[in-house]
Amino acid sequence: AKDRGRGNFQFFTQELNRQAHDRLMLITQLRQAIERQEFVLYYQPLVDIHEGRIVGAEALLRWQHPERGLVAPDQFIPILEETGLMVTVGEWVIDAACRQNAIWQADGVPPISLAVNLSAVQFYRSDILKTVQSALQRHQLDPQWLTLEFTEAVLFEETEPVIRTMHRMKQIGVGLALDDFGTGYSSLSYLQRFPVNRLKIDRSFLRDAEEHDGSADIINSIIRLSQSLGLISVAEGVETSTQLALVETLGCNEVQGYLFSKPIPADEFTRLLKSGLPS
Ligand code: C2E
Ligand code: CA
Ligand code: CA
Ligand code: CA
């Protein structure tokens, strides 16, 4: 029994060594990815339910890995955040999104608001306001066409400075959206302190709405809350026409999800903007 215990322990340390090794490999590869510019943005449309047309897009980060192919953000964003590399990559995301939106505007398609996701580290470890302002200026983009998305996790440390920064962002004229709404700890108490103009209802509620009436009730409450605060409500993860009908009945303003389009590369999104959604 004693020997087996030691065997388990050896297995355990080997496993830990392997995990630490994999992590270091990943960090090295991510540093290279920054140098080699292997990151790309995919775009997913936001559709105004009432008008039935594309009014915005969310820029979503992908890693074009030379061997592994396209890597999804949940595979590498946590490491970028832990190592602080997210500051560099996040600056690239803001710049690339503003550049792309300026290209679309120059192309003469109806202007859209482009949303970019922000990590908490970008508030703590960089001058995020300056990054945003210089990207807007560099690409001659009117601030109203940029939306910054964040979750309430940005408030876990340094609440006051972060809220001050958000008020400055609002003053500049960029849109602010509270992402994954309804999943955090104290969404309601934070909400009145965030100067946001959009609430994005977390997609877990829609996913569960068909089986549990409770989820539909929560979606309904969030939409009512948005309306009473004068905010635009956005339903994330709309995959079926039944889900679309539900949020439409409840008075939701905008929708995003596979029913309309998965996140797609810029050139495909350009075609989508020019042709409009199939009706
Ligand atoms: P998020 O901000 O909540 O983004 C929405 C996610 O839902 C995206 O996953 C999108 O592909 C997915 N989605 C959209 N519609 C549907 C649907 O109908 N069904 C299903 N099942 N999924 C849908 P993605 O692109 O894998 O991104 C995951 C998360 O990674 C994002 O969640 C966001 O938190 C983070 N992320 C992505 N890009 C960035 C970035 O540039 N910066 C930062 N800080 N985070 C990012
Ligand atoms: Ca988002
Ligand atoms: Ca979300
Ligand atoms: Ca999320």
TrEMBL record:
Sequence ranges assigned to domain EAL in this UniProt record: 23-277
This protein's UniProt keywords: c-di-GMP
Top-rank taxon, per record: Bacteria
Alphabetized GO MF terms: cyclic-guanylate-specific phosphodiesterase activity
GO biological process, one term: cellular response to nitric oxide
Signal peptide from the UniProt entry: none
Listed name of the protein: cyclic-guanylate-specific phosphodiesterase
Residues of the full protein shown: 549 to 827 of 835
